[in-house]
């Protein structure tokens, strides 16, 4: 497999998709809801996913695609080469803020993350990594992260998880919020992972993410020595929805041991 060629191809596809998204702001965006009133999707999410899928199917007919909007393949195993795509991660930001959303793409071979991309479209910040070759923000190589303790850590966590919820003991998450240096929430899992990779967040956690939210980011953060697992500390299968944490070495285990009390769901 010529991963260098796939890498160049994926980068140019993502840049073109980013351009299409920016241009879309000139027209009227159609907004619909999915699972509930706050689960939003637009015609642009769908158009961008279809754009990726038509190109990938044309140029890599043997590869499979797992995309959030459902135009890809029905992927139930990690076999072969799988492109895991979120055409717009942070759709609520896309609609309400017209910024702080990203294209997220991970390319996996037999379940192993080979290439990862997060494109913060409006900031024009492109995070990318090729397994074993380091992670980059645009042309700048991201340094390997130093360890940090909870009291000095800035943690990405959504306020939903410190309110009563069905997934986790929210009081334990509240203790984490009190014990760490500060918390942030950006409304795009992919952008939060880019922040972990770049050392702006020391950890990011969520109770329910899908493979397309984290596929690109998990490849990128690994290259700077960070770890991503579910909140039981297990590897992610990149097929099903799961709990999620990405953090620097050491901090990852401290958070799991001291602050994570999952409920049986
Ligand atoms: C969502 C964003 C958000 C996260 C949600 C995701 P979407 O993705 O990443 O930050 O909290 O769980 O579903 O729907 O905007 O692609
Ligand atoms: Ca998403
Ligand atoms: Ca999305």
Automatic annotation (TrEMBL):
UniProt: Mg(2+) binding residues: 68, 86, 88-89, 213
Top-level lineage group: Bacteria
Matching PROSITE patterns: IMP_1, IMP_2
CDD domains, per the entry: IMPase_like (cd01637)
Enzyme Commission code: 3.1.3.25
Top EC class of this enzyme: hydrolase
One GO biological process term: inositol metabolic process
Keyword Metal-binding: yes
GO molecular function, one term: inositol monophosphate 1-phosphatase activity
The keyword Plastid belongs to this UniProt entry's keyword annotation: no
SUPFAM superfamilies the record matches: Carbohydrate phosphatase (SSF56655)
Catalyzed reactions: a myo-inositol phosphate + H2O = myo-inositol + phosphate
Coiled-coil intervals, chain numbering: none
Cofactor dependence: Mg(2+)
Record's keyword terms, sorted: Hydrolase, Magnesium, Metal-binding
Protein name: inositol-phosphate phosphatase
Species of the source: Bhargavaea cecembensis DSE10
Protein's gene: suhB
